[in-house]
Amino acid sequence: MPMLSVSGLTKRFGALRAVNNVSFDVNEGEILGLIGPNGSGKSTTFNCIAGLYARDAGTSRFEDAEIGGLAPNGICHKGIGRTFQIPRPFRNLTLIENVATAAFFGQDRGKSRADCWQLAEEALSLVGLPTDPRITTDGLGAAALKKLELARALATQPRLLLADESLNGLDHTEMEQAADMLQRIRREKRITIVWVEHIMGVLMRIVDRVIVLDHGEKIFEGLPEAASRDPRVIEVYLGKGRAN
Q1: What is the rounded CA–CA span in Å between residue 200 and residue 207?
Q2: 113 — phi, psi (to 5°)?
Q3: pTM for the full model?
Q4: Is the sign of the CA dihedral 79, 116, 31, 35 positive or negative?
Q5: CB 155 within 8 A of CB 161
Q6: Which DSSP string do the residues of 51-106 spell out, in sequence order?
Q7: How far is the CA of 215 from the CAs of 5, 20, 21, 45, 212, in angstroms?
């Protein structure tokens, strides 16, 4: 049984069909890449799964229970964490307070303040950020903000992590480090990961399977090496005439 099963997912914005009848499964323990050019429907798919958008059609079953229609906090409480493309930390809180707040509202809502603080320290250490309670978000660069966003998601204690464009705004070295970090999270925390990205190169090195979207429709599902040779995928990323 898949950990997450998405079937017939459709989302419209007026006359625009941003996601059209998309179906896929996520198996426990894997890293699944969800890729496609900008505007292909990747983040909209995430937002429907995570409850930020109400879908127009389709179902999402997590551990064989329907989660469609639940609010984002309810989906988080079920065990699904997510990051956002653009990190928006609480600027009036320190690093560890940002992450501890996420822990408090996470899957286990019976945690004490001390429990949340410990989860925050563990999450910050895992992503390579300091746990000193005096350090604020002032002056954090793009890579550090991405790490903080990831730490906040991890502090909710998810079994499934939806990582949305974790490479955006990073240089090549930072991209490689971010990819290695997701592998370590999967290995050490045994968290299943769906990674949305429009940058293919680094992602393809670590994912087990890949799904490619274009104009809201699924055009490929399979192994990364097969995707890199698929004529339609090549056309989507490189333009007509480059697939031959």
Answers
A1: 11
A2: -60, -40
A3: 0.91
A4: positive
A5: no
A6: TSS--SEEEEEETTEE-TT--HHHHHHHTEEE--SS----TTSBHHHHHHHHHHTS
A7: 21, 8, 12, 12, 10
User: Distance between CA 200 and CA 119 in Å, rounded?
Assistant: 32
Give the model's pLDDT for residue 243: 44
Residue 192 CB partners (closer than 8 Å, separation 6+): 3, 4, 26, 27, 28, 29, 30, 31, 159, 160, 161, 186
pLDDT of 244 > 50? The answer is: no
Question: What's residue 198's pLDDT?
Answer: 77
Average pLDDT over residues 62-71: 94
143-172 pLDDT tens trace? 899 899 999 999 999 999 999 887 777 788
